[in-house]
TrEMBL record, chain A:
<dbReference type="Pfam" id="PF04290">
    <property type="entry name" value="DctQ"/>
</dbReference>
<feature type="transmembrane region" description="Helical">
    <location>
        <begin position="21"/>
        <end position="42"/>
    </location>
</feature>
<keyword id="KW-0813">Transport</keyword>
<feature type="transmembrane region" description="Helical">
    <location>
        <begin position="54"/>
        <end position="74"/>
    </location>
</feature>
<dbReference type="InterPro" id="IPR055348">
    <property type="entry name" value="DctQ"/>
</dbReference>
<keyword id="KW-1003">Cell membrane</keyword>
<keyword id="KW-0997">Cell inner membrane</keyword>
<comment type="subunit">
    <text>The complex comprises the extracytoplasmic solute receptor protein and the two transmembrane proteins.</text>
</comment>
<feature type="domain" description="Tripartite ATP-independent periplasmic transporters DctQ component">
    <location>
        <begin position="33"/>
        <end position="155"/>
    </location>
</feature>
UniProtKB/TrEMBL annotation, chain B:
<dbReference type="GO" id="GO:0022857">
    <property type="term" value="F:transmembrane transporter activity"/>
</dbReference>
<feature type="transmembrane region" description="Helical">
    <location>
        <begin position="363"/>
        <end position="388"/>
    </location>
</feature>
<keyword id="KW-1133">Transmembrane helix</keyword>
<dbReference type="GO" id="GO:0005886">
    <property type="term" value="C:plasma membrane"/>
</dbReference>
<feature type="domain" description="TRAP C4-dicarboxylate transport system permease DctM subunit">
    <location>
        <begin position="6"/>
        <end position="424"/>
    </location>
</feature>
<feature type="transmembrane region" description="Helical">
    <location>
        <begin position="279"/>
        <end position="301"/>
    </location>
</feature>
<feature type="transmembrane region" description="Helical">
    <location>
        <begin position="172"/>
        <end position="192"/>
    </location>
</feature>
<feature type="transmembrane region" description="Helical">
    <location>
        <begin position="6"/>
        <end position="32"/>
    </location>
</feature>
<feature type="transmembrane region" description="Helical">
    <location>
        <begin position="213"/>
        <end position="234"/>
    </location>
</feature>
Amino acid sequence: MEAYTRNRSLFAKIESKLTRIESLIASISMVIMLVLSLLEIILRNFFHTGIPGASILIQYLVLWVSFFGAILAVRERHIKIDVAIAFVNDIWRRRLERPIFLFSTLVCGILFWHASRFWWDEWASSNPDERWVAALGIIFPVTFCLLMLHFALRAIIGPRSPKRVVK
Amino acid sequence: MTATIVIMLLALAALGVPLFIIIGAGGLVAVWSAGLDPAVLMIEMMRLATSPNLMAIPLFTLAGVVLSKGGAPERLIKLFTAGFGWMPGGLAVVVLITCAFFTALSGASGVTILALGGLLYPMLLREGYTKRFSLGLLTSSGSLGLLFPPSMVVLLYGIVAGVNIEQMFKAGFIPGVILLTMLALYSIFAGHKLEIKKHPFSWKVLKRAIRHGVWDLLLPVGIIVGLLGGYVTVTEAATCTAAYAIFLEMVIHRDLNPITQMPGFGKDRSLLEGIFREASVLSGSLMIILSVAMGLTNSMIDAQIPMKVMALLEQDVTSKMQFLMLLNLFLLLVGAVMDIFSATIVIVPLILPLAHRFGVDPIHLGIIFLANLEIGYMTPPVGINLFLASQRFKEPMLSLFRASLPFLFIMLLWLIMVTYVPTLSLWWQ
Amino acid sequence: DDTYILKFATLAPAGSTWMNVIKAWSEKVSKESQGRLQFKFYPGGVSGDEPDMLRKIKYGQLNGAAITGHGIGNIYSPARVLEMPFLFRTYAEVDYVRAKLMPEIQAGFRKNDYELLGWMEVGFVRIFSKTPINSMAELKKHRIWLWEGDPLATAFFAASGISPIPLPITEVFTSLSTGLIDTTLAPPLGAIALQWFTKTPYMTEDAMADGIGGLVVSSKFFNKLPKDLQGLLQRTGNEVSQQLLTETRKDNEKSVAVLQKNGITVTPAWKESETEINSIRDRAAADLAKSNYIPAEVYDRARKALVEFHQKK
Ligand code: NA
Ligand code: NA
């Protein structure tokens, strides 16, 4: 964390604030998911009942937990097949970072646009009883929007010096 | 045009663009060139939300992070050393058996490495195994129990191919045990060559180790009894495992602080190093790939590409031997680029009629199919075990692939045995 | 001079009765149109669950589908009054009421951008379970599958005080194997086609409801076709759905015998009184009317038609 507070630029501050909020959402979703599914097990096995809508809520919480984790992974480490990077020296490696982040921003931006369109359609065409389920689906546009934002911030802030890479 | 784009995307991937961006971009290109609305990619993502065993991924991950951040590795290493340290390669054998068991009960969804990797990796290193051997062992162990009940993949094959599930499990038993034995023998050999220190066996030490580690031991015992006894489902097992792990580390052993370590509330690092957060990052970087990959698979189905490939294959094949050889090559390729669940749904209906024509039993075909796809877990570019191990151990995929080569070689030998000796799968008929 | 490709999806697996009949239909259409209208098939759920298929139709990836009541509910939900639980007991009742409602159902589909080419059935739905179910009270103790996002079944379970487990249909078999659920609802034919019966040794004598089905294409695709091809699709669609209807009824009858031969025990009719079961049905109907899923006047019309049928007899 020290590594980030040292960088006092406005964009670094925005990134840091965003990350805190996202961490909070990811952690809280994880706790709710665990508690809800424990409750469901107890109710179902000992009382032959359940919480209405809990299973669907849990299904979406899995996505909230995971996709917010994926957003946080932008600053840490996403899964890569960086085969060629082993043959590139350090200077070039840092030069490549900005274009890579820009490309990722672009792809997430396009996916964000289509996710929004799709989500809006789903929400508008859902019947009133199921509107809450459609509302939970907003995780898709939100995910791509935040991914886009983080990749853009990374592109603006630029490469980190090797010392400042967390872990 | 298409070829240019594919090559460009592969180059970008090689230079370090995150894999989900590459697959997402590939999905976009695929829908554009087919004249489809990119919103169909989102339909596929929605489908991911409804898959009922998905919940097991973040929860088993959470249990793994909790256990590995707590004192479980230390307790277990004492216990295993006391129990198996006397034999050469003892710990490696324990790793193989544990992973095989865990993979089966976690539905072969890839969580083995996440849940056990953090625990077993430091144990192996401390015992004196080389980094390379340890990484190779763990990377290839992640899919080892694929053929044992209650593996979800076997269930899925049975449904798609319309064969009896119990018979599938019966057929998979001996091949599964053979692979375990082959890898165990290699591990014993490696342990011998690496001159891993053998510990003299002592009842006193073992008893003390059991007393310390009894609560950890109860976890796998609970899962076996719960699952095989039919008391809990896979998702329930995942929930209970996570809850038990938290209880164990927070209440019984008090290795984890419920405020500063679980959510990560600290003085000036609020929430940034918490265990819940780490588990969500680990499962999230896998889930985002899964969700975009479903979009790409959809484009392949839409263009009926798998069907066309099979039609080509159909033209030149004349004998059963030739068919089986080509089938293996084809399936190894499929395993390289597809995950096992989509592959089962898409490929099995296509190869079934061909297998029938060449006199291959559908149950034997299932074992061949799953054996190939099991190898596919550790072949790039889409190798779930490589992804997970790369994420868990913070190592580049290429070096993990290199580390698992000896294990891959053994598995290929095993694949040949399973393919050309049908009796191994069909002895009970 | 233009050729049209109809991308057509269904849950029915390749090689099943349904898929064979539909394949024959496609060959007929292709032949009679001299190759100007051709089908491309996505069977066995490769395109996902029915709501997924309809989404893909909406965004133009698919053009048509053979769907059951679950999908029909997403197009024109009032049509599902025909599969209201415990409303119909015989095929004759169903046929009479359906004929009365058909014009408004067809109009309803068209208003929602679909062309209904033919009407069919999956048949009377039974309850399949791992342990015998002899009453509503016993049903409550089971882990029952709810087709995810199905308001009709949701309303029925809510009215009966049952908390079911929502899953997509593509996950039912594995969930039966893992124990996530121990009870499913299916017509006998479906239980065999999807292999569910291998996990559930008990089947109820009582049928819950008559599962409906339909052959649909999107209006977007249909309106693009020249008049002669539209006519061809409608005519042959209607013929093939008649054929599917009779074959399904025959197959369902045969399936009960096949199931019994495979060791399935049929549990006798439930102990609950007719009034009790009817009150559950009416509460569910009231619930569905509130959300306008099945408007009250549609339910009333269906019941009136039913009374009319019995008076005529
Ligand atoms: Na696994
Ligand atoms: Na692979």
